[in-house]
Amino acid sequence: MTKPDLNEFIAAAQDFRAFCEAEGKATRADLWTVRAILLRLIYHAPAAEQSSQSCDHEVSRCSDESWKLVFHRCAGFPFDYYNLHLKPFEIPSDEVGIGSLCDDLADIYRDLCEGLDLYAQGYLEDACFYWALNYRSHWSIH
């Protein structure tokens, strides 16, 4: 098995972006595509940990409109809501909540795109910092 690779992470992030920006509603079969891309992203995410401790360039925020387009594209999946434990390390835990697959995927899209935009501008270290920070603090939880 290969070790985590930054180029593979970037390729997976670009594949995820392309999937999210494709026309039409996602289908049941697209769940397998998204799953495969997410597994690649998770496996290669440690390669983005190589960066410095700050981002020196301004991140262009993904617009709310773009986020909503991804959310609505993912609404074609056969389900959206799922149960989640709010305190997963407390057993037994009766505190449950509801998660949204569409919301989670749109959030991941936003986090990846903002890093991809930095990467496209030639700021690889900043993109890595941004990807690693957002993976650890946000979308890995999803």
Describe this structure in words.
This protein has 142 residues and is mainly alpha-helical. It has helices at residues 6-21, 30-44, 64-74, 101-120, 124-139, and strands spanning 81-85, 96-100. Strands 1-2 form a two-stranded antiparallel sheet. Helix 1 (6-21) runs antiparallel to helix 2, helix 3 crosses helix 4 (101-120) and helix 4 packs antiparallel against helix 5 (124-139). The longest helix has 20 residues, at 101-120. It is globular.
Please sum up the structure shown.
This protein is mainly alpha-helical and 142 residues long.
Question: What structural keywords apply?
Answer:
mainly alpha
Write the layout of secondary structure elements.
Elements (H helix, E strand, L loop, with lengths): L5 H16 L8 H15 L19 H11 L6 E5 L10 E5 H20 L3 H16 L3
Antiparallel strand pairs: 1-2
Helix pairs in contact: 1-2, 1-4, 3-4, 4-5
Indicate the proportion of strand residues.
5-15%
Shape: globular
SSE order in H/E notation? HHHEEHH
Chain-averaged pLDDT: 88
- Main β sheet profile: 2 strands, antiparallel
Give helix % range: 40-55%
Structural class: mainly alpha
Weakly predicted, low-confidence segments: none
Cα-atom radius of gyration: 16 Å
- How many beta-strand runs? 2
End-to-end Cα distance, whole Å, is: 25 Å
Strand order of the largest sheet: 1-2
Number of helices: 5
